[in-house]
Amino acid sequence: MRFTRLAVVAMAAVSLLAAGCGDSDSSKGGGDSVAGFTPPKIPALKSLGPGEGQVNLVAWAGYAEDGSNDKSVDWVHPFEKATGCKVNTKIAGTSDEMVNLMKTGQYDAVSASGDASLRLIAAGSVAPVNTNLVPNYKDIFSGLKMKPWNSVNGVAYGIPHGRGANLLMWRTDKVKPAPDSWGVVFDANSPYKGHITAYDSPIYIADAALYLSATQPSLGIKDPYALDQKQFDAAVNLLKQQKNNVGEYWSDYLKSQQSFKSGDTVLGTTWQVIANGLTADKVPVETTLPKEGSTGWSDTWMVAAKAQHPNCAYKWMDWIVSPKANAQVAEWFGEAPSNSKACAETSDKKFCDTFHAADEPYWNKVHYWNTPISQCLDGRKNVKCVDYAKWTQAWTQIKG
Amino acid sequence: MMSVTSPGGPVRRFAGLLHRRPSIRLAGLLSVPLLWLVIAYLGSLAALFVTAFWTTNEFTGDVVKVFDLGNFQDLVNESVYRTITLRSVGVAAAVTVIDSLVAFPMAFYMAKIASPRAQRWLVIAVLTPLWAGYLVKAYAWRIMFSGSGVLDWFLSPVGGHGPGYGLPATTVTLAYLWLPYMILPIYAGLERLPNSLLDAAGDLGARSFRTFRTVVWPTVFPAVVAGSIFTFSLSLGDYIAVRIVGGRSQLIGNVVYDNVGTANNLPFAAAVATIPVAIMVIYLLAVRRTGALENL
Amino acid sequence: MNLSRGTRIALRVAMIVGLAIIYVPLFVVLINSFNADKTFAWPPTHVTGEWWSRAWQNGGVRSALWTSVKAGLGATAVACVLGTMAAFAVQRYRFFGRETVSLLVILPIALPGIVTGIALNNAFRTVLSPLGIQLGLFTVIVGHATFCIVTIYNNVLARLRRLGTNVEEASADLGADTFQTFRYVTFPLLRSALLAGGLLSFALSFDEIIVTTFTAGAGVETLPIWIFNNLFRPNQAPIVNVVAAALIVLSVVPVYIAQRISGDTRAI
């Protein structure tokens, strides 16, 4: 269920009590950012034993493909062959479902998004990960290691899977000059009225907040996921004004691609994979990461605290970030791989370049999706921030 | 049932008991369906609506069981929910009207004019789209309404163009999706209407329209209402079609879905859900007298 | 029947136009299943059979189809039993609250799917999870059966009303017990009504997506859910058109067979 899933990944990269994580320039890893949050003491696996013959995974659709959707897309069977661990996958539709499934204790590993990941850690559902037992961990981009959503107090809790950014896309034949700022989608007098698109989820409010943080410094927005009432109202008003120019909100891959192709939409947010599909179909589009930066997502593989098949779970985590498998999953799902060596394995040799896989300055401009809670994520103690339930209700108001 | 042949066996004795005591028979017949519908279904609904008075813990996502009217206050105070409710009811009503107007002549033709052989094929023809898949049909309409889509392709030679995405497109798409559910009850209702009655009306000199008004309509009205229960309620609860062809608009189903699906705010979703439920219950009570409930 | 010529022609035209409206979008689907463009750009510029061969090799769609058939048959079976029992009770007995039963049976289909969906989801999770039962195919069947009961109930009710009680009384007079009467007398008379109701019930279940979304376990993928997932996967959307086109063609078979067996179009 891709749109549900993304709506929820929208809430991703939690760091419920983490401070400053939205501002990637200032985040120095997990250790300093988690105040007042002590996870249950669960030991990490010390050494790797023989496989248990099977492993039960909870994963997003597209993360554990076994060829049943497309014969050529299969990194599960090679894993089973190589390790003797049979893979049983439960596809989860939402982060809440992931959290609930992991609570049952029937599963060994989970591809958690940010919000799920810290909740899982706090609930004691997942154990710290001994990264020494994951040989491929060393090749993972440092920009993804020990982040507030996959580590607590300097202890790693997961293996980064991949990441993506929400980009600005436009039809080069219809939009001139080429934009370099989100201002073009928020312009009240836009010449592209009725042909602008925006992501259909409450989390899109963060995009408006990000734009305001650059254009209205007086509001003092430091983290687009930590908005006090005044900042929040400003973002909501900007979106209400934008609504008049929006042709349609998009929430899924096909809808976005169709409307850019037909010209119903000429300008708006997108994912790299959509842009690639359009370019392959010879639609004149271009994307950019605007100067204000953008929002994005990042997922993490975690191992269950009470895993019945811990050895196979570790083998799976190592497998899914191994260069070949990581390249396959990244290409199938349309995201940047987490393993630096995956770039040599992609079938499209330019894949990593188009997805900026190794481009750390690029990712420094990306504010990974986070769950807004009333305790401000940017560390402010003197105000209350607006939580995600209120974001959702505001989104209803924006759409009217 | 293997022991039915052995007279005096336990089954036979039990059957005898049932025969003598109708109340036991009745209890046996009613208990299972009622257990299912009252406990499993109404129980679930009741449990849902109780949560409407609760709130959620934003961190764990767990429901906090403290009585609180805040959800309903939000619903009443924010004008946006009234707007969305009215819009949803409007769309559902429009879908129902369109469907009855399209369905009636078709059902009439099927039931009263077509030969028995043609009748069979027409029923199949009307039922077939039910198997094509909701999403596939909705996307087919997305292609129809697209700026460079099928409708514009047809209309552009005569200088017209389609309405584009939005509420009209949503209404048409929903009307299309639920049309078979309107045709079938009306067809069944007309089938029950004896031809001789129509002929008698004709013989007595009634013109087509008069026959329709005095003979056909009173008999078929409950069937139309029965169909409208389908079209109205299915439209009222929809949140997917509007995402596909609705452009930037939203209906009440979206509000419920957004709150429960992405925000995990079940209490508020439950509060919003009381609106369509109240509307439907009122609607059902209002049409109960027409006998429509037996015509579904 | 005597209708004026004009009325007849008008009705015939309405029928043709109606069928055209029903089938134009389905033809668009069919044509698009050969459209080389991945996002179904209109009009198609290139034709390809690639989607059909890819769909043929797709294992996911076959298992989803099978899941849907199991869910539909399971829900229909439950609905047949419950719907028939309720119809008998209402048609053959007088009791307090009799009028309410009809309303109760209709409620699950009359209330918006999303309400039924989240209510059942909430109940399943709070009641079944502590018992160790997770959402799965079973919960889908329970959810579907709930709103399918009405189709059986109404068909059986209408049939019982038409039959009256004479034959059953005759059977009892001849010494048959309650079960024998049902098995050898009543049931055969109800069969076509059950078939018609069952067919509609199966169709309802087969194309249901909203309640399914909320009651399906994480690993359960019915065909509509498969379609939902695949429409939103890169490059999978054209295959969905193929599946839909194939289903439209295949659907004629069960409907036609059911029509032949029942020989009674009235009951549908």
Automatic annotation (TrEMBL), chain A:
Recorded coiled-coil stretches: none
PROSITE patterns: PROKAR_LIPOPROTEIN
Keywords from the named record: Signal
Record InterPro entries: SBP
SUPFAM superfamilies, alphabetized: Periplasmic binding protein-like II
Signal peptide range: 1-18
Organism superkingdom: Bacteria
Protein name: ABC transporter substrate-binding protein
Provenance organism: Actinoallomurus oryzae
From TrEMBL, chain B:
Positions of the ABC transmembrane type-1 domain: 85-287
Compartments, as annotated in UniProt: Cell membrane
Full protein name: ABC transporter permease
Swiss-Prot/TrEMBL keywords: Cell membrane, Membrane, Transmembrane, Transmembrane helix, Transport
Gene3D superfamilies assigned to the protein according to its UniProt record, in alphabetical order: MetI-like
UniProt cross-references to CDD domains, sorted A to Z: TM_PBP2 (cd06261)
Annotated TM spans: 26-54, 89-109, 121-145, 165-188, 215-236, 266-286
Topology in membrane: Multi-pass membrane protein
Pfam families: BPD_transp_1
PROSITE patterns hit by this protein: ABC_TM1
Organism lineage: Bacteria, Bacillati, Actinomycetota, Actinomycetes, Streptosporangiales
Xref: InterPro entries: MetI-like (IPR000515), MetI-like_sf (IPR035906)
Family under the similarity heading: Belongs to the binding-protein-dependent transport system permease family. CysTW subfamily.
From TrEMBL, chain C:
Transmembrane regions listed in the UniProt entry: 9-34, 71-89, 101-120, 132-153, 193-219, 239-258
Membrane topology category: Multi-pass membrane protein
Places the protein is found: Cell membrane
Main subcellular localisation: membrane
Keywords carried by this UniProt record: Cell membrane, Membrane, Transmembrane, Transmembrane helix, Transport
Pfam families linked to this entry: BPD_transp_1
Domain ABC transmembrane type-1: 65-258
Cross-referenced PANTHER family: PUTRESCINE TRANSPORT SYSTEM PERMEASE PROTEIN POTI
Name of the protein in question: ABC transporter permease
Organism name: Actinoallomurus oryzae
